[in-house]
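Dear Dr. H.,

I hope your travels went smoothly. While you were away I took the liberty of generating a structure for the chain from your last submission, since the lab meeting agenda had it listed for discussion. I wanted you to have the full record in hand beforehand rather than looking at slides cold. The sequence, exactly as received, is reproduced here:
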Amino acid sequence: MSITLKKQLDYNFYLISSKYFALAREIYFSQSNSGLFQPPKA
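The corresponding predicted structure, in token form, is as follows:
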């Protein structure tokens, strides 16, 4: 595998995972703010 292709794949993975985490964080906070979701007690 060429280094350029690997960099492109890593960058695509970074974009996808950052979008996923941003979406998951929005869902988590919207649920916890509404009071329907109780975060697990540590």
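Two observations you may find useful: The mean pLDDT is 83. The chain has one domain: 1-33.

With kind regards,
E. W.
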